[in-house]
Amino acid sequence: MKSKKIVILTGAGISQESGISTxxxxxxxxxxxxxMEVASPQGWQKTPELVLEFYNQRRRQLFDIQPxxxxxxxxxxxxxxxxxxxxxxxDDLHERAGNAHxxxxxxxxxxxxxxxxxxxxxxxxxxxxxxxxAEDGAQLRPDIVWFGxxxxxxxxxxxxxxxxxxxxxxxxxxxxxxxxxxIDFLDQxxxxxxxxxxxxxxxxxxxxxxxxxxxxxxxxxLVKKLINENNSDEExxx
Length: 238
Prior knowledge:
By secondary structure, this protein is an alpha/beta fold. It has helices at about 10-15, 35-40, 40-45, 50-60, 70-75, 95, 155-160, 215-235; strands at about 5-10, 30, 35, 80-85, 100-105, 105-115, 120-125, 140-145, 165-170, 190-195, 210. The strands form 3 sheets. A 6-stranded parallel beta sheet has the order 5-4-1-9-10-11, sandwiched between helices. A 3-stranded antiparallel beta sheet has the order 7-6-8. The radius of gyration is 19 Å and the shape is elongated.
């Protein structure tokens, strides 16, 4: 019986173990370009070809990597709990691992949208070029929330966080808002587990367990612990 609701907030650290580099590791640079040149509305207006090539490379890379033990641990957790994943990542590793309920805060690498109409969104697995247009005639752009843009998905995931019985944070420095502020919407006494080899300070009145290990090591162990505890609880009820 899926008696509890578990919400998992994931960041770049969980994908990094599959071989996806993070902006933080690159010191905010991409091939000597400041990240704002390739991940902001200003960069898109200034050099759209550069922006498209940045995301074309990221998209191609997806086909050479696989989900890791942390992603598959979430799939195992789903067999015992109602699990919702809120991710800051734009890759599809959660989905490919079988994670069923995934909410992408910052967009998806395998989708594109009209530059003029945010509701015209298309699946996209190949390179994107200048001249590729949406049905409204506008240039297609990556369906990614760039620096300085609003995060419309945040209002959809807040109610999910409010229903959590357990909240797990994996592979994020809790420095990027509004995602980092989601813990403020937890009910009192909801236990927070924070997994990161270099955890940042987390300020919350809720019970907090910090596990300073990589996701691929710590999350499978935590999942096993939670499943065992849940099974024990069920046996006690019987």
